[in-house]
Model the fold of this input.
Amino acid sequence: MKTQTIIALKFLFVMTILMGIIYPLFMTGVAQLTYPSKANGSLILKEGKIIGSELIGQKFDSSIYFWSRPSATSYNPIPSGASNYGPTSDTLKKQVGARRVLFGKMNSIPDLLSIPKEMIFASGSGLDPHISPEAALMQVDRISQSRHFDNTRKERLLKYIKDITEGPEFFLFGEPRINVLVLNLELDKI
Done:
């Protein structure tokens, strides 16, 4: 019995060193060498200051910016998660209805049912940084009016939306999408 305990403890010690220290350090080194930006969180810098990450959504609710997808966690990455309201939840129905009406009113959309789903439903993590190109295009008129864009600047904005639209991952998985933080940073340059 004692020998089995000693063997088990030795195995635990070896595996802890191997899988708990050596393997993580090796993988961190490989990630730092091959994809340093992604390994460090895909941080976005503006004037030398970190203003966000391409991986985590942020709240934009001003009329001069593109709005992000709603978040059940108020865009807080620590308690990342969904609201867990089911399809029969009255609370979810009220939230979706209020978001639909607000988005439609602010963007002058007469057909509220045409609003893309990501603008009325929170994501599973509450931190999704992307919206669809359709959702971005629905917001162009509001932003152009708020920023007093002429037709030339509005056309530049439309072209930029088209240029930064990311396709499905590996041409197969997901749908076309736009990172809202990246889009809003570029919007400030127009």
Notes: Residues 2-36 form one domain. DSSP finds six helices and four strands in the chain.
